[in-house]
Amino acid sequence: MQYFAMCSSLMRRPLLLSFLFLLAACSSTGYKKVTHPDLERKTLFPNGVYQHDIQLTIPSQAELAEKDFHFNGVVKISSDAIVVVALSPFGTTLFKIAEDRITHKISDEIYMMQMRKFEPKLLEYYSVLRELLVLRGHEEVSTELVWKETSPEGLPIRVELAHDQIEAVFKFSKYDKNKIPEEITIEGEHFNVKIKVVGYEI
Fold first, then answer.
1. Which residue has the higher pLDDT, 63 or 118?
2. Residues 193, 45 contacting (CB under 8 angstroms)
3. Per residue in 72-90, pLDDT tens?
4. Residues ≥6 apart with Cβ < 8 Å to 199
5. Are the C-beta atoms of 98 and 104 separated by less than 8 Å?
6. What are the structural domain ranges in the chain?
7. Is the pLDDT of residue 106 over 80?
8. In angstroms, what is the C-alpha Rg of the chain?
């Protein structure tokens, strides 16, 4: 698939191909495709590639003032890896976080100098985002994730996370016909995120 080819190339040469990636993302805004409609769906976000519009706010702490970041996010979810790439509106690669789901090794690359001092917060952001990306598509008993509110169809509306001293609240709204939420907010102790899912291929 075109998206997957782009992601693989970006992982190898992020700075050289970021502009091409942005062109692919922009041309596919609003593009929503389900390639395997009969495949059993276990998670809220099935394996595939998702395009996000993201507003990340890091509150002021100590000597650091509050900072807002707006970027385009592209997330690839597969059975063996999760890759998160952030692009500025101008097509430059801001950062990339990749996790090997087999070894659980996480690597990050931050290309925007302004964001490097926030690296611990970005990794904390990913640890919370990961829980969202692998969230089961139905409520289940868990000591870390508590479903506080669901839709009449049983889809999550509000989920609270308490994991490894990290607490966050996920809020979902505007589910589309494929039962993918179009708007998500994450309220964490050290950051707040507003996400719009503007396209995907699953």
1. 118
2. no
3. 889 999 999 999 998 887 7
4. 25, 28, 29, 30, 31, 32, 50, 51
5. no
6. 2-201
7. yes
8. 16
Angle at 77 between CA 75 and CA 81, to 5 degrees: 110
Exposure on the CB side of residue 190, measured as CA atoms within 13 A: 16
Q: What is the 3-state secondary structure (H, E, C) of the chain?
A: CHHHHHHHHHHHCHHHHHHHHHHHHHHCCCCEECCCCCCCCCECCCCEEEEEEEEEEECCECCECCEEEEEEEEEEECCCEEEEEEECCCCCEEEEEEEECCCCCEEEEECCHHHHCCHHHHHHHHHHHHHHHCCECCCCCCCCEEEEEECCCCCEEEEEEEECCEEEEEEEEEECCCCCEEEEEEEECCCEEEEEEEEEEC
Backbone φ, ψ for residue 80 (5° rounding): -115, -5
Contact 58, 118 (CB under 8 A): yes
CATH architecture of 2-201: Clam (2.50)
Q: Hey, what amino acid is at 105?
A: K
User: Residue 15, by phi and psi: left (phi above 0), alpha (psi -120 to 50) or beta?
Assistant: alpha
Which tokens sit at 36?
């395997």
